[in-house]
Amino acid sequence: MTADPETRLRADARRNRDQILAAAKQMFFDDGPDVPMEEIARAAGVGVGTLYRRFPDREALIRAVAQDNFARVLTEARAAAEEPTGWQALVRLLGQSRELQLSVRLALVSPQASVIIREDRGTQEFRNAILDVLDDIVHRAQDEGSLRADVSTGDVAIVVSLLLRRFPAKGETAELMIERVLALLLEGLRARPDSVLPGRPITVEDLYLR
Amino acid sequence: MTADPETRLRADARRNRDQILAAAKQMFFDDGPDVPMEEIARAAGVGVGTLYRRFPDREALIRAVAQDNFARVLTEARAAAEEPTGWQALVRLLGQSRELQLSVRLALVSPQASVIIREDRGTQEFRNAILDVLDDIVHRAQDEGSLRADVSTGDVAIVVSLLLRRFPAKGETAELMIERVLALLLEGLRARPDSVLPGRPITVEDLYLR
Amino acid sequence: MTADPETRLRADARRNRDQILAAAKQMFFDDGPDVPMEEIARAAGVGVGTLYRRFPDREALIRAVAQDNFARVLTEARAAAEEPTGWQALVRLLGQSRELQLSVRLALVSPQASVIIREDRGTQEFRNAILDVLDDIVHRAQDEGSLRADVSTGDVAIVVSLLLRRFPAKGETAELMIERVLALLLEGLRARPDSVLPGRPITVEDLYLR
Amino acid sequence: MTADPETRLRADARRNRDQILAAAKQMFFDDGPDVPMEEIARAAGVGVGTLYRRFPDREALIRAVAQDNFARVLTEARAAAEEPTGWQALVRLLGQSRELQLSVRLALVSPQASVIIREDRGTQEFRNAILDVLDDIVHRAQDEGSLRADVSTGDVAIVVSLLLRRFPAKGETAELMIERVLALLLEGLRARPDSVLPGRPITVEDLYLR
DNA sequence: TATGAATGAGGATTCATTCAT
DNA sequence: TATGAATGAATCCTCATTCAT
Q: Is Transcription a UniProt keyword of this protein (chains A, B, C, D) (predicted)?
């Protein structure tokens, strides 16, 4: 009757929910977004019923995983934005992409999952917040003269997304690949007097408009 | 009973097979590698029975699509290698990647498809042949002094693969995105006296070794 | 620990039980006897746990609803029997059937529910008591010469049950339907010199013997 | 390639379909409209897959059974209408109701099934055709002076529906019950100079309007 | 040989019932 | 004792694959 048991219950439920989310994230990334719900439940150490109590169907689970992922990305983007210069912030953000890999790749996988995530309001909000932070970083870096002037935030977002792909190797070799691709991309992004990109800058509005 | 009807039959069978492959490729890319076999058959204008006569199961179909894709890539790579300079060959090859998108993305999608393709002997042979061609181009471009010396064929292969991703837009905007990312990557790949990449070059042996 | 809280508890428990019964009755009639137990609990304003404390399983709940229903029918039948003449008692009893509709229809719906109810001892006793009252009324009306002599109590019971059906309309129209069907049946039941029914009278023993 | 094999195939499929319909009808009436689809399939001697190929889901199966039922009723109603007098036609139609029992009871059972059937276009058309036939019979019998003048087609339809209920007995006893109730109702319906029903006639428009 | 009907295993989802709080 | 979270068995439905025509 007091608030205490209720709170403890909530703590339990919360823990359950977190375990399910963690298990789902892992399995989505290892095996794709079609893994049997029952396996997710088993990996989370709960019964299917519990999984369905928290997430009414697979879509809801995918949305929840996506929101959780994007929330983490937002946190890291904000931390990166604390760097003294815009360029440093950009480098840090891109460097972290490696850690965000697991986090965001889901959205890139199956066409169905893409649609679900793209249409999810919660994820949209996180995405917009992330793009706002990125926008700041980009402008700062351009004002400093370190980032080439003929790119816009959309271009940089695409560069970030390139780094989220699955690389064709495991462990340290995969790390090395990311590191080197990142270095190549930074070379390309650095302001250079003689270089000009084709077409027009990609803006945030160009993204996700399918 | 003469050779004639048999030949005509073969022609028919060939046409059937091609239709199925084309339909499967399209549907794999539009809807992922889990599209019902029956839908593929319908799109190909044949019954499921016919589909199964040509391809004993889904894996076989995936393998066939992959081989067909890689064969096309090989053809285009060889054509690109005809360019007068190594750098031009490289630019052309990377530029064509956009057209290879549809062709190869399958391997990047579902973890299951990845495994099937990676373990398929036929695809492996095509892949090796492609990498041989790429290897030639890379060396020529480096000998010319246009491609930075601290990359190896594996690095370039990864750059190619980056361009095969699904970009977050449709139609012309997606084309524009690819064009600009390609330009950024070429900037990064260009030989520069003052620039050095971290780690060691990625070799062909580093690829796909998971 | 004193008797007082225990008594209050009983009052509470009683109220709980009544709420559950009322909710269950309503939902059984609106949605059939398969409504989720959880929805019944919600409608009753209690948790499922409480519902299960009172009624160990769905069958027990169905039995309880049936007994409650039949008890009401018995009460009304006894009240009808107070009428001055047997025919008036019969008319009143049949007229009340309309109000008994909700009460008894459950037994007519799903085959499963029928079996549960038919085999329930408590319900059987109520049913027998009701049939005893009806038997009295029938004999009185026949002794008066108003009810045809070639029917027996079983025939009349069946006529009652006919009026418990769900009529294909809502609200006043449904009332009207019942009223007119009732009038037709009373015409048929009225003693008439020239009319004779086929077969033999249906006795109480003929009922429910499946 | 000729029409022959196709026809034979259709014959097979048709036979399968008929078996499924027959099995479903039987089981719906024995066990209610919630019997597991798998049991229906087993009773029909086919796999679930076949059942689902013919009837995409349970609703479709219920609709098909209902249409089949109503079609039979229509046939019998038309046959009854051939009787020389309207009253004889009416008696025959009501007498056949006993055989229609199995046929139509489905619509009276679960609220869900009722809704599905009521909203099914095909069933609606059969129902309307049946009511047209009934309307003719009613008018003929009234013109003859044998059917009471203060009923309308809706009243008679309701009387028919009363006879479709499940009677509380099996076998011959149930037959006897129907026979006697039918006789009582015919007594009530017979034109009588001194008798008048309450309210106004129930028209076809009053039916099913919930 | 082509077709598409049949099969049944597999995976999603629901809900009766139990049990920890 | 009341609550509602957890469990898992039961059922729905889909689709890969086989096989009769």
A: yes
List B residues 172-201 in contact with A (Cβ-Cβ < 8 A): 173, 176-177, 179-181, 183-189, 192, 195, 197-200
CA distance A63 to A119: 9
Cβ of D167 under 8 Å from any chain C Cβ? yes
The whole-angstrom distance between B53's CA and the closest CA on chain A is 28
Q: Is there a contact between B27 and B40 (Cβ–Cβ < 8 Å)?
A: yes
Residue with the two structure tokens 């064009």? B179
Tokens in use for D184?
Answer: 């009582």
CA–CA dist A166, A170 (Å, integer): 10
| C-alpha span between A192 and D64 (Å, rounded) | 73
Contact B44, B27 (CB under 8 A): no
CATH number for the segment(s) B58-206: 1.10.357.10
For chain C, the farthest-separated pair of C-alpha atoms sits apart, in whole angstroms, at 73
State the first-to-last Cα distance of chain B, in angstroms, to the nearest integer: 51
Alpha carbon B2 to its chain centroid, in Å, reads 40
pLDDT, one tens digit for every residue, chain A (210 residues): 434 444 555 677 788 999 999 999 999 988 888 999 999 999 999 999 999 999 999 999 999 999 998 999 999 999 999 999 999 999 999 988 766 776 677 766 678 888 899 899 999 999 999 999 999 999 999 999 999 999 999 999 999 989 888 888 888 999 899 999 999 999 999 999 989 999 999 999 999 744
Count Cβ atoms within 10 A of the Cβ of residue D159 and give its class: 0-12 exposed, 13-18 middle, 19 or more buried.
buried
Preferred mutation among B161, B187, B200 to probe A, highest tally of A CBs within 10 A: B187
* Superfamily name with CATH number, domain A57-206: Tetracycline Repressor, domain 2 (1.10.357.10)
The residue among C124, C127, C186, C187 with the most chain D CBs within 10 A of its CB, best to mutate, is: C187
- The first and second tokens of residue D72, run together, are 């039979």
Question: Which amino acid would we find at residue C129?
Answer: A
Distance from C-alpha of D17 to C-alpha of D13, rounded to nearest angstrom: 6
**Residue burial D129-158, b: 16+ Cβ < 10 Å; e: rest:** bbbebbbbbbebbbeeebbbebbbbbbbbb
Q: Taking the domains of chain B in order of start, what are their residue ranges?
A: 1-55, 58-206
Query: Which chains does chain A touch, 3 or more C-beta pairs < 8 A?
Result: B
CA of B136 to C1' of E17 (A): 70
Q: Which residues contact C16 (CB under 8 A, 6 or more apart)?
A: C44, C46, C50, C54
Q: List residues bridging with C190 in a β-sheet.
A: C147
Angle at the Cα of C18 from the Cα atoms of C14 and C23, rounded to 5 degrees:
150
Rounded CA-CA distance D161/A85 in Å is 84
Does B192 sit within 8 Å of A188, measured CB to CB? Answer: no
Q: Report the topology of domain C1-55.
A: Arc Repressor Mutant, subunit A (1.10.10)
- 8 Å CB contact between C64 and C44: no
Distance CA A177, CA C166 (A): 73
Who among residues 27-46 of D has its Cβ near strand F, under 7 Å? 34-38
Domain D60-206 is in which class? mainly alpha
Residue nearest to nucleotide E4 (CA to C1'): B47
Question: What are residue B147's DSSP bridge partners?
Answer: B190
Whether D and C touch, i.e. at least 3 CB pairs below 8 A, reads as yes
